[in-house]
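hi!! sorry for the late reply, been swamped w classes. u asked for the two structures so here they r. pasted raw, havent cleaned anything up. first the sequence of the first protein and right below it the tokens
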Amino acid sequence: MKYTERHAGKAVIRDKELLPEAIEKLAKVEELEIAPGTICDKYCKYPGIAKDQEELDRFCFQCELQGLLHALVG
């Protein structure tokens, strides 16, 4: 559901009764911003096998998930 509309170029809540739902949706979007770091920190195998930060940076640069993770946070 779309909770907002634009008035004079500004985003506003369409209906005040939708405010609690709109805030919940915003909270979920904000939580997605930490997803890339969480996924990398908890599930990536390369920090444990990289010899140094430079090698780890090369792994990260080549990571196939990187584009997807950045798309999540826009």
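now the second protein. again sequence first, tokens right under
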Amino acid sequence: MRQFIPLLPIALLGACANPVAGRPQPAAVADMLPERTLHCTVGRATNLDAKQWQTVDQIRHEGAFAFALRLPAAPRHVGPAPDPSDDPEPVNPETRVIEDPANIAADIAYPLVRVADLWPERVEMVGRADGQDYQRLIIVSEIDPKAGTANIFTTRAKDAASLDLQHVYQGGCRIETAAR
């Protein structure tokens, strides 16, 4: 866990639209992101304080839980990030949590509601929490394709201003990319 991802800006909950505005157009192979699997280890943040900015050294974590995501091949995003007010595009149902033995994100109903695959800058995912009045947020950031590493953040929220600070998990990931 290299760096604390600050409590997300207001726009994040709604900013997770599909990365291609309008209907996606077929892209040449060179314009496609490869299939990616992120093998992560996350810990639950135990002392988050929404009233202050905390550095990685100030945040304590408990546990070391396996957590893996599958990001299917997708057209490479070009242009600005999706606008939070845009209607979400259909999400590839193969975009999902594939390993979660601690049931951190067992509440997600598939397919996800929104995915912004802005690789290698970040990946933002929002999923409905099955039978609950909140949504699950998953943010992948600090992606370093050469080193094969990334950071991950996940929590649940009723809206962008009400993150559940008791269920914040953060950690590091090893990136596995499918050969093209």
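hope this helps!! also noticed smth abt the second:
Residues 163 and 178 are 34 Å apart (CA to CA).
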